[in-house]
Automatic annotation (TrEMBL):
Catalytic activity: [thioredoxin]-dithiol + NADP(+) = [thioredoxin]-disulfide + NADPH + H(+)
Top-level taxon of the source organism: Bacteria
Domain FAD/NAD(P)-binding: 330-608
Official protein name in the record: Methyltransferase domain-containing protein
Length: 642
């Protein structure tokens, strides 16, 4: 058994470690029958998410953690995994339920880690941290904080429990859970949607903006991954999970759903238990890795003279810390997408010291796959970036997760500060690979399906919607171009003018020649199921079935840092960008730009190519500067000898 410490009464405790159809703030003297087994089953299905969180924690800690706190430990799967991954750490595990803590104890004994696991039966809504050791290296919270009365307050206490520089790894539900098919195999159309909608009213905090809460408390962001739990009725574990899950939902909503829906649920459950169902369930999971900053928020306009820098070991390409918070490097790259990582790798392979600052929000994250990537067709955008980060780090690139909040200085003497003052980088050159923001039309449904079935690029996603029903929803000036591109991929293309002007006589002839219907009525909304567009609804209520929608958003590059250094953004017909020469050099000495920040239409491969070009150009620029300095030093020495 683990060491049982700090026992407290159940009276007033409000943090059961479950999120399955049970309202928060319930007194839990006993868990509902079968719930602990269900949590273990969910933990089995969640192993890929757990592995992501563990890998992120292990790759981010700067030294082996000695003290870890697990908030809402449940049956102990996370505690045991932490103890196994960090074999010298003491783990303090918190939960309110004696039954779950008993399971945690048995799991710890079975794994041979009971001597390092300390169980605390306490309430996360109470003074849970007063009985724990302070200055934890790592706080772990997996699917527990959405139960508490005040998640922000628990996060503040977690902040206080960490040592400066310590990590919080938070896993929470994201988005809307999704069942397939929509009738759950019962024949009741829309049953899954009604089940999800009604369940959402029962205390779930799955839609909390966890990034904003973490920022509000003062944590510095490091990484954010989006994953999912998936259960399929065709597997034994998935079927058991789904049957228990649907039974629980049914009991919760028995007074709210019509009798026909309740019978439909019974039919769905019976089919699952009889191994005759193909129902699947997907629930989003986000993993946030954040840190308690080592430095306070900086108020000075330049780096403190007392702050010692981190210098680069040119022989190894690695960086060594001479002090807290400040890093010195040849080049700082702002943005860790394809362009930024490619630039960093090009520089690091030439033994330049490089720091990449990345906020962790890639533009193409919603997409299922990246296309036109030679040799990597259809690769997940997040997987591609993970490989790129690993490759960059193998050459000594240091990657800082956070937002570049301030920049000052000039060539050979730039300073960039990340948010909350967590880091300060001093560099000779800057590459801005900050990407762009898609300014989407304000039509309900567009943002929900953006990157999946709401598209903008025929080359990025056209093949995936070939032969489908495609709605073009773009302004008149580009409408015919989009129609022409997508008409090559499908015969079922319709143009919706929405608020655009009527086509010219020439455009009308072109559209007629392509046999493309034109709908003049204003679009009210897109009808979307999850991320799948189903129809376009126009003013008056008429709907047009469709499988994909094409829009033309404005592409606005993130130019704030460039303008702070004295640069002037460039307006184009499609938005704004950073003007550069073909190598990526801007008009601001010492500043380059790459990727979508300077090339709005660049796809993944083109962005990476521009990053390589910019990185190579910066290396050459530094080389000539170093050469000129060496020549001048030699001349000065010769003059001194005379």
């Amino acid at each position: 058994m683990p060491n049982q410490e700090s026992p407290v009464s159940l009276a007033g405790m409000t943090n059961p470690h479950t999120h399955h159809s049970h309202p928060p703030h319930t007194l839990w003297s006993e868990l509902p029958e079968g719930l602990a087994d269900h949590l273990d089953l969910e933990a089995t299905l969640s192993q890929p998410v757990l592995q992501i969180a563990l890998d992120e924690a292990a790759s981010t800690v700067t030294s082996e953690p000695s003290l870890i706190v697990d908030l809402g430990a449940g049956t102990g799967v996370g505690t045991v995994a932490l103890a196994s991954r960090f074999p010298t750490a003491q783990i303090h595990s918190i939960d309110i339920s004696p039954q779950l803590l008993e399971r945690l104890g048995a799991a710890s004994v079975a794994a041979g880690v009971a001597d390092r696991v300390h169980a605390h039966r306490v309430d996360l809504d109470g003074d849970w941290y007063s009985g724990l050791p302070r200055k934890a290296d790592l706080v772990w919270a997996a699917l527990s904080l959405h139960h508490v009365s005040n998640p922000a307050e628990v996060l503040r206490r977690a902040f206080e429990a960490l040592r400066p520089g310590g990590l919080l790894v938070l896993t929470e539900m994201t988005g809307t859970p999704r069942f397939e098919p929509g009738d759950l195999g019962s024949g009741r159309d829309g049953l899954a949607d009604r089940l999800t909608t009604n369940s959402a009213a029962h205390g779930s905090r799955a839609t909390l903006d966890w990034s904003a809460l973490l920022d509000q408390v003062g944590f510095a962001p490091i990484r954010h991954h989006q994953s999912a739990l998936r259960a399929d009725a065709v597997t034994g574990e998935g079927a058991r999970y789904l049957a228990r899950h649907l039974r629980s939902r049914r009991a919760q909503l028995v007074e709210e759903l019509p009798m026909e829906d309740l019978r439909g649920l019974d039919t769905a459950i019976e089919s699952i238990e009889a191994d005759m169902s193909e129902v699947s369930f997907t629930s989003g999971r986000g993993v946030w890795v954040v840190a308690r900053p080592e430095l306070p928020v900086l108020q000075a306009t330049a780096a403190s003279d007392a702050a010692q820098p981190v210098t680069a070991d040119r022989a190894s390409g690695r960086q060594s810390s001479l002090g807290k918070g400040t890093i010195k490097a040849d080049v700082v790259v702002v943005g860790g997408g394809s362009a930024g990582l490619a630039a960093a790798i090009a520089l690091a392979r030439s033994r330049r010291s490089v720091v990449v600052i990345d906020a962790g929000h890639p533009r193409n994250a919603p997409a299922e796959g990246a296309h036109n990537v030679l040799g990597q067709e259809g690769v997940s955008p997040l997987e591609l970036l993970a490989r790129g980060r690993a490759e960059a780090e193998s050459y000594g690139v240091q990657i800082i997760q956070g937002r570049a909040a301030r920049v000052l200085g000039s060539v050979d003497d730039f300073t960039i500060e990340t948010d909350h003052g967590a880091h300060r980088v001093h560099a000779r050159r800057i590459i801005l690979a900050t990407g762009l923001v898609d300014d989407l039309p304000a039509i309900p449904g567009v943002e929900q399906a953006w990157g999946r079935t709401v598209l903008h690029c025929p080359f990025c996603h056209g093949w995936e919607v070939r032969d489908q029903r495609i709605a073009i929803l773009t302004g008149a000036e580009i409408a015919v171009h989009h129609v022409m591109m997508f008409r090559q991929l499908s015969e079922h293309v319709t143009l919706f003018l929405h608020e655009a002007a009527d086509p010219t006589e020439e455009q009308s002839e072109q559209l007629a020649a392509l046999n493309v219907p034109v709908i003049r009525t204003r679009v009210e909304r897109l009808i979307v199921d999850g991320t799948q567009v189903q129809a376009v609804e126009v003013e008056g209520g008429s709907t047009f079935d469709t499988d994909a929608v094409v829009i033309a958003p404005r592409f606005n590059a993130r130019t704030e840092l460039f303008e702070a250094l004295g640069g002037q953004r460039e307006a184009t017909p499609f938005g704004q960008q950073i003007p550069t020469d073909p190598r990526g050099m801007t008009a601001v000495p010492g500043v380059w730009a790459a990727g979508n920040a300077s090339q709005q239409m660049a796809m993944v491969m083109a962005s990476a190519a521009s990053g390589v070009m910019a990185g190579s150009a910066v290396h050459g620029d530094l080389g000539f500067a170093d050469l000129n300095r060496a020549v001048q030093t030699r001349r000065d020495a010769a003059l001194a000898d005379h």
